[in-house]
Specification:
2 domains; mainly alpha; Arc Repressor Mutant, subunit A; 73% helix; Rna Polymerase Sigma Factor, Chain: A; globular; 0% strand
């Protein structure tokens, strides 16, 4: 966090090229959150870029007393994702793979089916549950930070995660019964 603050001060002091360090330091967690909320790869890339652009433009408004830089950045990313999801029309076309997979076809098919099933399960969660579940269980963000990102009490974060896990367990159980 001290590295972030020092870099932010340098950027605000005129060394705008140092912002690249912040991008490199935090791009993994931003891309991870966006990837788990937005299915389309190109849309994800756009949202991640918009997140960092918005952070750059609003860097003077960042308050280290209120939140860590990563929390502030994830809040921007989450809000951008929610805006896209609100505008989205349902798609009927299946997603095509980005490139050819050279692994064993049976193994590849199982992996793709599992990933697609998990994506469907995540999509079945209400937006507020999906967001906190992804932040906590996939990105490893603390409950306190999630509460700041979502602008809700920590207890609400805990209950949303609990409800999300319960719903996912139910979906897994239904799938297991259908298969077996």
């Amino acid at each position: 966090m001290d590295d972030d603050l020092a870099t932010i001060q340098q950027v605000l002091g005129g060394d705008v090229n140092r912002f690249r360090e912040l991008v490199e330091r935090h791009q993994g967690i931003v891309f991870g959150l966006v990837a788990n909320l937005i299915a389309d790869r190109h849309e994800r890339d756009d949202i991640a870029q918009e997140t960092f652009w918005a952070a750059y433009l609003g860097l003077r408004s960042y308050d280290a007393q209120k939140a860590k830089f990563s929390t502030w950045l994830l809040t921007i990313a989450r809000n951008r994702c929610i805006n896209v999801l609100r505008r989205r029309q349902p798609t009927t076309l299946e997603r095509l793979p980005a490139e050819a997979d050279h692994t064993d076809p049976a193994e590849s098919l199982l992996r793709e089916e599992s990933a697609a099933r998990f994506d469907r399960f995540l999509d079945a969660l209400p937006r507020d549950q999906r967001s906190v579940f992804v932040l906590s269980e996939i990105q490893g963000v603390s409950y306190q930070e999630i509460a700041q990102i979502e602008d809700v009490p920590v207890g609400t974060v805990k209950s949303r995660i609990s409800r999300a896990k319960e719903k996912l367990r139910s979906l897994l159980s239904q799938t297991a019964e259908e298969i077996g």
